[in-house]
Amino acid sequence: MKFGSNSMSRLKFALPTNSKSCLKIRPEALAFDIDGVVADTMEIFVDLVRNKLGLKNFSKDSIIEYELYRCVPAPRDAIDELLCITLSDEYTMKIPPLPGAKEFLSKLGQVTNLRFVTARIWPESIIKWLYNLLPEVKQERIEVFATGDPQAKANILKNLGVSVFVEDRLDTCHSLREEGFQVVLFDQPWNRKENSFIRIKHWDELNNFIDWDSC
Ligand SMILES: [Mg+2]
To answer: Which pTM was predicted?
Structure first.
C-alpha cells in the first residue's frame, strides 16, 4: 500500500488503524455515510422485494453482497425499479433509522457539526429525513454532501478535514483506507467478507470510541 505525504499525515493522525481498544476519535474528525449506516434503507428495499416481486422469504440477510443483482432472484430491470422506488422522495421518508443512530448523533450534534457524505445523487429528501430524525440538532449543524459516486467521497472528506469515516460498503472502505483515512465498518450482511477494518454492530460501540473529553 502506498501513501502520499498528505495521506501519511492523515494516517498518522488517525492511528491506530485496527485496534478497538486504543481507538479514540475527536468528534470533529468524524463523518458518516448515510444509507446502511444511519438509515436502514435496505429494510424498505426488502419489503418491496417481498410485496412487489412475491419473494416472501427474502430478507436483509439475503443481501450478502453489495451488488444487488447477485442477491435478488429477479430480472435487472425489476431490481432497478425497486431501487428507484426505495430512493424516491416518498419512500426515503419511510426509512427507519439504525438502532442507536438517533441517540448518538443527537449527542454528537451538540458538540460539533454532523458531516454526512453519501453517494446519493439527490440529497434533498435524505436531508429532510435527517432533520426529522434529529430535531434536537440545529439544522445548520447538519451538513450533507451528495457525491453521486462512492469514489468521490475521499476528496470531500479531505476538504472537510475529516480523518475517520463510518461506512458500510466494503469497496469504499478499502479505497478510503488507501487514501489514508481511518475507516469504521458498520456491520451489514453485505460486508461480512473477511477484512481487518474496525467493525461495529451498533452505534453504542461508536460512542465508546469518542474522545468526549476533548469537547
Ligand atoms: Mg452506505
So the answer is: 0.89
